[in-house]
Amino acid sequence: MRLIFLIFSAMGLALAMGVVLSKNLVRAALCLVGFFFIVACQFVLLEAEFMAAMQVLVYIGAVAILLLFGIMLTRNILGDETTGASAITKAFGGLLSLGLLLVLFAGITNQKIRDPREGSIEYDYAKATGKPLADPGRTAWPDTASRLPVEKIASDDDDETPVAKKKLTSNQARKAAIDNMGLMVGTEMMTRFVIAFEVAGLLLTVALVGAVVLARHAGAEEPPPGKNRGKTAAGSVASLNGASSSSDPIPSEHAGGAAL
Amino acid sequence: MTNDIPLTWFLYFAAAAFSIGLLGVLVRRNAIAVLMAIEIMLNAANINLIAFWRYVPPPPGEGLNSGVLLALFVITIAAAEVAVGIGLILVCYRRWKAADVDQYDTLAG
After folding, report:
1. Of A48, A108, A174, the CB nearest to B15
2. Among A4, A39, A144, A257, which is most buried by a count of CB atoms within 10 Å?
3. CB of A150 within 8 A of CB of A180?
4. How far apart are CA B25 and CA B54, in angstroms?
5. Across the interface, do B37 and A20 touch by the CB < 8 Å criterion?
6. Average pLDDT over residues A215-226
7. Dihedral (Cα; A175, A179, A180, A181), 10-degree rounding
8. What are the residues facing B30 on neighbouring strands?
9. What b-and-e string marks burial along A159-195, b requiring 16 or more CB atoms within 10 Å of the CB?
10. Per-residue DSSP letter, A110
11. Which of B35, B69, B87 is nearest residue A214 as measured by Cβ atoms?
């Protein structure tokens, strides 16, 4: 398992570097598609297969295609990346991201398992007498390799009730949360996260309408369909007669007035 | 499981991917390449969320799938953001005939 993770991580980081460093935009987009797939593989390693499927569907199926269409529609006439960043910008960017990397690595490596109630009287008393604290609270991240264990009880095999109706004791609930993730995500989306769900729907609608409004061609004013139909025919005949009969010394003003 | 992947390995991978994304945002001059680097950063944050969901017991009041749902909402927001971003880049492209962030400087001093 660890070897698989290391291979996937190496490929993922190489693909991310490919996105950032490649001069050809299409190659960068394809490296991004590969990175999305590696992230989906990581989700499978984390036993969240539902999220892996969603990742492939939404990111590779929609976001990457949208980015490729954007690349197609905004090609530089002279070629890709006509202006690169200056050397100072590159150095500054490299320094900043390296600094962030080091800070994050230091934080992950040196996470201290420190009880947040350290200064209080109960803590000192418990430490002095050796008795455990009443509420153990939450400790830091598990530093050894251990996932939340999900044991299989022997009686799970005979249990015929469907998942949604099971009385959720803690082990059954945890097992259902991982094995039947689609169902549990749907249930939670409708009960605990319903407001977030509706707000996300609203945001998607706003984004859709906004993108359509933005991408409409500038200045394409369609005449209202019903109003001008009769007028246009009469107007065109009248303008033809007017243009042919009158020899305008200033044709542009007339044309401008007619257009308005 | 004795051969299980430690939690910190996932966090290292996510941190490295996030830093690479940050490098892309700062260094690349094409607007769509900047969007791609932002997507890398969002995916790294998602890996973080799912890793903590799997490895760390949830607080007493929370549901069992909160990490998964939070990552799902991040995916939703990222997709909407890319759509609007591409629309904006198209408008800017029509105006300046280039998708170069150095040229989008009308508001600059």
Report:
1. A108
2. A39
3. no
4. 30
5. yes
6. 62
7. 100
8. B100
9. eeeebeeeebeeebbbbbbbebbeebbebbbeeebee
10. T
11. B87
Q: How far apart are CA B63 and CA A192, in angstroms?
A: 8
Partners of B68 on chain A (C-beta within 8 Å) are 48, 50-51, 181, 185
Best A42, A58, A171 residue to mutate vs chain B (most B CBs within 10 Å): A42
Residue among B65, B2, B23, B60 at smallest CA distance from A183: B65
3-state SS class at B100: strand
Contacts of A43 in chain B (CB under 8 A): 47, 50
Q: pLDDT, tens digit, for every residue of B33-43? A: 999 999 999 99
Global model pTM greater than 0.80: no
The contacts found for A92-101 with CB under 8 angstroms, 24 or more apart, are: A92/B26, A93/B22, A93/B23, A93/B26, A93/B27, A94/B23, A94/B27, A96/B22, A96/B26, A97/B19, A97/B20, A97/B22, A97/B23, A97/B26, A98/B19, A100/B18, A100/B19, A100/B22, A101/B15, A101/B16, A101/B19
For residue B1, the model assigns a pLDDT of 47
CB atoms within 10 A of CB B63: 17
Q: pLDDT for A156-183, tens place per residue?
A: 555 555 555 555 556 667 777 788 888 8
pLDDT at B100: 82
Residue A109: the pLDDT is 83
- Range picked from A30-34, A110-114, A220-224 for highest mean pLDDT: A30-34
Question: What is the arithmetic mean of pLDDT over A18-45?
Answer: 94
* DSSP state, residue A156: G
Chain A residues touching residue B42 (CB < 8 angstroms) = none
- For B22, the token pair is 């940050």
Q: pLDDT digits over B46-96, tens only?
A: 999 999 888 877 777 777 888 999 999 999 999 999 999 999 999 888 888
Reported ipTM: 0.94
